[in-house]
Amino acid sequence: MEPTLRHETIHPSPMAARLGRRLRPGRRRMLARDTAPWRAAAAGMWAAGGAMAALGALGAPTGFGAGFDIAGAVALHTIGLLLAGSLVAWLLAVLHLALPGFACGAALFALSEVALILFFGDLGLWFSLGFAFFSVGTLALAGTAARMTFSRRFGWRRKLGAWLAVAGALLAVGATTAASGGTAAEPAALPSPEAAGEAIAPLRADDPSRPGSYAFEAFTYGSGQDRHRPEYGEGAAVVSASVDGSAYIRNWAWLRERFWGFDETSLPLNGRVWMPEGEGPFPLALIVHGNHLMEDFSDGGYAYLGEQLASRGIAAVSVDENFLNFSVWSGIPDEDMKPRAWLLLQHIRQLQAFAADASTPFYDRIDFDRIALIGHSRGGQAAAMAAAADQWFGEGAGLPDPDSYSIAGVAALAPTDTAVDGRVTRLTDVSYLVLQGAADADITSFYGERQYGRAGFSPSSEGFKASLYVDGANHGQFNTTWGSKDEAMPAALFLRSPSLSGEDQRQIAKAYLTAFAETVLKGESGYEALFRDYRAGALFLPDTGYWSRYESAAFVPVARFEETSDIEAPADRIDAEAAGTSYWTHEETTDRDGRKTGNRAVALKWEEEARYTLLAEEAMDGPFAGEKEGGSVSLVFSMSDGAADRGGESETEPESGPESPDRPDAEGGAAEPQPGEAGISLSEAEVELADASGASARVAISDVMPILPSPATTFTYFSLLEETMDDGKYDESVQAVFQTYELPLELFAEANPAFDPDEIVRITFLFPEGPGEAMLDDIGFS
């Protein structure tokens, strides 16, 4: 007989059974404490976290479109909140804690999510935590109030109380915002030409912001294989070659290759072209963007400039370098400045090949002896580097023959000025223009002023350099696609919009860049007055505050303060003395962040009245002898109120003169003037000239040009963010900016007919009202 199999049921021990039941609470038990109001609060938390996840997705695009990114972020957020809520509900049920488990889990997840997204958006730990608690808590309370509103279980008093609590939270934040700085200050008004009468030289050319008389056609050239932009793919009018940039790029991430379909060995040459109609040949302007999110293409944002220049008879190309830009997913190539400049020169080489090919629309229509480079942000620095190619690229770089083209000018919009290989660009006999906004929340310091200082000219050159600092202008609005916020989401949520509109900001860029291109590429001299004095553009420039500098090759310096550290002898054969100053030294200027700029100036500080004098044994303006009768010679100098230099870090101790005790540091010494106070004393400043016989004449600076204090900018809605966002990037509201003043010598002759402008031996700057401080630089004649 076969054995009978016996089945025996093994029952767990009573302790194991109890443990199993405890670890497997039923759904009803897990959610027992999550009543309707708590579920409504969890819905509010879901909304708070979902909104922040959507904002974070906008700041980290994948390239599949904003809809896909937002939907994906909200879906992941929802899954995470459900898992976190369920896990915490299970844990609390296991522990037999009488708490709404799912709501607690949702709160922990939403708070962590919001705080982490803000923290990694460079908003600082404490602000990120505080805003997370406020946003999640307020929307949770709003969810509960909404649930109570539609429930019969609660009376109207409790419903009203819930909504009053929500309103109170919102009002508290509004009051905090107002107490933290209120609204941004309105920019100062542009003085009218009539304000100083004949002191403003007339503009001897038409409005440069208006279109010219040329019709033009727009088309593109490109690889013909672009994955994301048909205008560089099958829509390209001309197919360009690819170039190998591996000599300058070391870390091309595999995600970057997957996105673009190429690596550093086969970089495309893509460009948007606006070509004037007619035979030509036409001057060429290359426009190059800066660093922006790689997936948010930047090169189309300069169509307003391309169309304007083409209407003026200048062939314009907006160069595509988006594949070198930053991506949240693949970073940015190391030391990307050199490949940006190298690529810009590769476009010149490619255009030369097109211009020699009768089958292309470029054939014999480009004048490569008249080229201007225009760059924005990192593109502004790349343009300067490309114009000084011999400083950066040796033989074998595959660049066009330097004798086959000529770059006459470089224009930069809010450029960077990063040292590459420990070096910076020095332009020689290349005209330079830089525009910078005071409300630039990306490039907060005026880095372009450093390149301005490093641009020089030989005596025979016809070049010039000019700068324009614009109150209320930001970084992104020079490009039509970058927008009014200079940071990506979610940080952009907390930045104030600039006081200048995008249309006004681009009006300024269009006017100055057109005038610059007309001057350096077509020899139009009628726009010189605009660069020398922004008031010459009062009829077409938006109403805001401007600070400008200008210097031509005709400038003859008396003192630049770079030559020596001896404050009593600032230049060869020039002596100096000061009276009434509490501080007097030559020092390197600093930017908004307290970093050295590479430019030295004389710094003065006084409490009551002060004067600063330059003296010489022979006529300072001797090179202009015989030219003064027509009033064509002016005393020229740059002056700043020094607002950003107070308390700045110094690498060396200041030189102390006879009347200049060591400068108080940032922690002690005399109380510092507030931003703008220095401008009050400067507004009464005068200049006195004396000739060899002792006759003198005095002119008030404000009789020729108004003296405006450096503008102050409030970047964010909360004072805490000004100090902590992006490591204190916005901590300083003011950057001192120089303004060039030109005082015609004929004004001094009119003030005292006995004064001989041919024999100037003394220049004295008088500051009759204190306390105040100022910096003087580039004093000479033009």
Quick tags:
782 residues; alpha/beta; Rossmann fold; Jelly Rolls; 3 domains; 10-stranded mixed beta sheet; 9-stranded antiparallel beta sheet; 17 helices; 21 strands; globular
Describe this structure in words.
The chain has three domains: 14-179, no CATH class; 201-552, Alpha/Beta hydrolase fold, catalytic domain (Rossmann fold, 3-Layer(aba) Sandwich); 556-781, Sandwich (Jelly Rolls), CATH 2.60.120. Helices cover 29% and strands 19% of the residues. The chain has helices at 14-23, 27-30, 36-58, 66-94, 101-119, 125-149, 156-179, 254-260, 303-311, 337-355, 378-387, 448-453, 502-522, 528-532, 677-682, 719-724, 745-751; strands at 216-222, 238-239, 242-243, 267-268, 271-276, 282-288, 315-319, 366-376, 407-413, 431-437, 464-470, 546-552, 556-559, 575-590, 596-615, 634-640, 686-691, 696-700, 739-744, 760-767, 772-781. Helix 11 links the parallel strand 8 (366-376) and strand 9 (407-413).
